[in-house]
## 1
Amino acid sequence: MERIRNFSIIAHIDHGKSTLADRLIQYTGMVEERNFQDQILDNMDIERERGITIKSQAITLPYRAQDGKDYILNLIDTPGHVDFSYEVSRALASCEGVLLLIDAAQGVQAQTIANLYLAMENNLEIIPVINKIDLPTADIDRVMEQIDAELGLDPYAHIKCSAKEGIGIEDILEAIVQRIPPPQGNPEAPLAGLIFDAHYDSYRGTVIHCRQFDGMVQPGDIIRFFFNKAAYKVEEVGHFSLKREKSDRLAAGEVGYIIAGVKTVSDVRIGDTITLDHRPCAKPLPGFKEAKPVVFSSIYPISSEDYEDLTVGLEKYKLNDAALIYQKDSSVALGQGFRCGFLGLLHLEIVQERLEREYDLSIILSVPSVRYRFTFKDEQILYIDNPAHYPGPVSIARSEEPYIKAKMIMPEKYLGAVMKLCKDRRGLDSKINYLGPGRIELIFEMPLAEVIYDFYDRFKSLTQGYGSFDYELGDYRESNLVLIDILVNGEKVDALSQIVHRDHARARALQACERLKEEIPRQVFKVAIQGAIGGEIISRTTISPFRKDVTAKCYGGDITRKRKLLEKQKKGKKRMKMIGSVSIPQSAFLAVLKTDAD
Amino acid sequence: MNLRTPDSCSGKVPGLYIHIPFCRTKCPYCAFYSETDLSFIPDFLRALFKEMDMARNQFDRFDTVYIGGGTPSVFTSYQIEEIVKRIRHNFALASPAEITLEANPADINISFLERLRDTGVNRLNLGIQSFDRKTLIFLGRRHSSAQAVSAIEISRKAGFTNLGFDLIYGVPGQDMKAWLDTLSRGVAFAPEHLSCYQLTVEANTPLITRYQKGELPFLPEGLQYDFFIKTSEQLEDARYTHYEVSNFSRGIKYASRHNQKYWNHTPYLGLGPSAHSFSGNRRWWNHRNLEDYINELSLKNAPIQAAETLSPKQLRLEALFLALRTSAGVHLKDFSEKFQYDLLLEKGETLARLQEEGHITIRDGILYPTRSGLAIADSLALI
């Protein structure tokens, strides 16, 4: 145990986390030069394309330190986006220390601070690393000031590096060995292992990623999960090399995997504790939370025949994403589907994209919503995350919506524009903290519903990419809420309904109609789109029908070409949802919430 | 309108198309294959006759012949006579067969036309396009409006009793009035057949380059619709039958029997470069290049560039979109039996809505596109 170090890298997005991980892997000789590809731990296509980490990954790096001894360094890579902070917290709970990576040019950002707090909560040793020192815009003195003033850390304890150029890598490895404490734990005590992730392997079932705190587990043992008390026989344990590497046992302090014939997803919860069935530990490891979704939307197959495929796809997908929650749901307009809870909009988009890519599903997502709280006149309380289930104004005594505390860090010159954006989104109680020359932190309390869709994009564009945004959930507050329904050719499409503040209702309804007009292609029939509150129509647009689209000539040589064109159009139409006789594309449902980009 | 295809067409006797790949000059809007070097004509004819010789085992009998192009009237009457002779030598022609030739008004004189009649050509289609000087110049036509008038007169004089005109609308610079003027001048000659095409901006033409550069405005959809509807109304007032999107005839009797074969999946054999053939569930087409065409045939190879075998689903889509272009419409029971697809059952709701909107009518088990339905026939096929 003395020779084990468990660590993670935490950073603001784009500060170079994946690149540094790549360099550490290369330096310790885990992978030959010719087999190397960038972002080696981000093995999903979507992670590479977006340049982000979605899932936690672990890798064991063998390292002979300058003291001549061999060490085992377990790197646990964590996601970087605000949507995934619970996954990050569980990964961090598996470590004794972190590398806090800061971009030498951009300095400390909102996520740097948020991650630092997470690391502090877990009592981790923090090693500040200033990355990208090769950049011409690097300002190391300024970053050191920030480390001192904003992070409250010893500015001289940092390591300078350029992950891109391979500078400072050995210093980092030495610091991991010397400064991060070895894991504590008693190998003789009852087994206590923390699940920090799990993934699905189509041959082996669920592969559990875990950190052992006490005791030891080996093949043949019967393990038990604390949360649901299910027991399984261990088939295989091992460590993470670039691939899984079988071993005889996993003992206290180690990071590795367990395969135990766990078939269904619901048996594995990130943050849950693994123990031995016949000799359980007294209490679970601290910090377990059920994933708490904040954004809700329903997923429907475009063709109702694909419902079974969607059921299977979601179940398999869930193996890899414990944060997604779902349950059966049905819509008058869209048929059978699933109501899903997501950590945020990015999470929603990722789920949508991965379901389509990895399970070859064509799906529609209803307009995203937050979870509202309604108190009825008889004092009964109902939480509603699906606008289709809005109970109607007559019975409601009190409507409430969730608020967040948004923290934004940006150069001072953007303050005016961002203040206006926040106020437009019903922001309250602003506070401004001056962090250093020209840099401010702006804090606003805002309804979550106002930030779930394009707030982040709008904020990024207003601050030209120099702003950072983070939020924490606050309490529920009373709000004057109404339900907007959308009618397409007189038919209510419940999946397009949204709950909004009354003062914004007319504008939102109009915006929804305008967006739909842009998204729904012209058809043979006139399409009337109406926004309504109760029975009252408050907005309206019309998509005029095709009047002339026929090709003038269609003789011998034209027929094949024409047919191929029609086949292509037919295929495109299959990816749209038919509501009555109107084809609505997938994009329309998410576009409804988009505001004008001014 | 809304007349059923006469039995002579649905009787499934194949048609023969001959593509003459020569023009004196190229029109900037046209995407049909042709060459302007007329010195290749003798080589082409030798190759064409060889192709006929090779095809005689596949097709033995036709009841229509269509000599198109290109510009068949760049040939001498003797060359055309030779072609028709060779057709008769290799294949059986039903009697009476419809034998059509396309001609440019600038090319023809009375003796040419009389010899054509003697050869057996009984239907003449004149590429008039417009009676307006400016429009003719824009279209790059080498004939004048006066030449068109004289071509019509001598055609009648030569004894052609089945005469068709091609006209184009939606040409930049041509407003509705100018078009209706051309149309009524055409109608005044009482042709048996009129093809009125909206100018199509085809890929790989000099015209599309001008549009792409932004030199020319695209015709707004509303105006396209107005041109289409006005044309149909005007011609039906003049007692023409609107029997296909762009085709009108003086009663269904004068509808092009040959062209209808394309629209109801009757087999056809196409000879000459770029010509398409169809039989059963197969379609194939020749090289769109005169040299390749000639070379293949001199090697005794079929000059086929490619072929496709249509799946039942593809045949169904074609049958639907082609039938929706014609006043013959879709015979619902036949369609259902042939393709195992009951349109009424599968698309009843949409069809009812289309009927309400006046785009189709359903009478006696036949689905007919109306005038406004013909204008959106391509979309109708996607229901």
Note: DSSP finds 16 helices and 15 strands in chain B.
## 2
Amino acid sequence: MSLVNTSRKFAQICATKNPILFTAIRNHWNKDFKPAAFPKTQEERNAAAEKYGLISSEYKPYANDGTGMGDYPELPLTSGDSRDPHYPWDNPELKRNFNEPLHADFEMYGEDRYDVMFKHRTPVYKQFFQFTGVMLGIFIVYGVCENFKMFPGLIPKQYPLQGKKHYTFEVEE
Amino acid sequence: MGNIMGNGVSNGLNLYLHPEITPDPLKEPKNNPLEGFDKLRKERTVKATKAEMESAKIPLQNRDYCVDELLRFKACRKDVWPFAVQCEHEKHAYLNCQYEDYVIRMKEYERERRLMERSAALNAAA
């Protein structure tokens, strides 16, 4: 029993002297990231907004339709590619500021993933006409030229021992 | 080059626009090969027999009128291997023979084309 007490005291001393060693182990488990239940009263909403670092007027949870988002806030969807690369982000790798709430599907919209705010250089209907125009144009040229295949002026190759007589252009004396 | 860059294109157009005076390169000539010659033309022959070609494993597409030169070339290579460069004369003879064969085919095509033109003109006159 004394060994247990000694160990506990030792652990407490370590936790006070070197908290970084222990906070990393004891906090930020999966259960800590798990959102709480859907907020029903205004007090619960305010508490949830504060928990996620939002002001109460900006806080808007996902619809309570069974998707399991709980009280997690529905944040505007901005892709990593569309964020300002020249802004001095606290975390430039993720273009993210310290304590900034993350979108629920954050891992889907990184710079290496899908860009929801992507703008095409040409509109899609134009791209469709460009594609069909090029393909149809090539097909028409191909179809027309199919009738005019160039060829060297040669008769088919002559082979001996097949019951046919072939001649040179010299005459017998 | 002239057979492709210049004539090749017009050959293709002529075969579509004037098929009555343009021979099809994929069909054998229809005219009598001896027509218009005072004397008999020399026949093209090969000395090698089918058994010899089979024994030398000559591919079917190479069993043409140059197969004698090809057999000499391959026999030489076998004799002097690995100094195959010593067979340069045999190889030259074989390639020359292929060239002559090509020229004969071009001449036959031109002969066929002129005979077709002649018969078309005769038909138009009649």
Note: The helical segments of chain A are 2-17, 19-26, 30-33, 42-51, 124-145.
